[in-house]
Amino acid sequence: MPRRTVTVTRLWGTTRRRMGETQDLSRLGGTHDVLHLAGAFFVGIPPQDLIDHSQERYVAIEKMVPAGRTLLLELAVGTFEDSGPTRDVITGKTEHTRGRHHSAATTVRALVAMPQRATSALIFLEHSSLRVRERCPGGRVRHRARGRAGRAARRAGPTRRIAE
Fold this sequence. Notes:
Helix content: 10-25%
Radius of gyration: 21 Å
Number of helices: 2
Distance between the termini: 15 Å
Largest sheet: 6 strands, antiparallel
Number of domains: 2
Number of strands: 13
């Protein structure tokens, strides 16, 4: 089961050469605020630009819901590095086979929140770990991280085994 964490990022703007003076993000250019710009930005991103072929990561914006001074995003994220069978965990039978361009995606959420007349916005982003539990000889369990760190560890040698 993936482990879930949330990061919070503060977004603010300053005037050039006046780092101590933060801008009112609810009135950029007099008519737009950061929430409107973020919504337009997310709608305008071409889906193929959300696929990172070098890191073998997939992201798709599934749903975007504006509510008051917030913008909620539901994202489908996953990796597409491994090909192989997808198995039913109860029966053990192969349901279908994934190719290198298929992704086992999970849903995560992001929230952009900005109060009226605010000098900063908060971006909450949920992360889902991509750890895979594998059975080793002797009944032990080892955890294999996926992605760049996992590939580097696999190239370096066997991973550390953890007893149940």
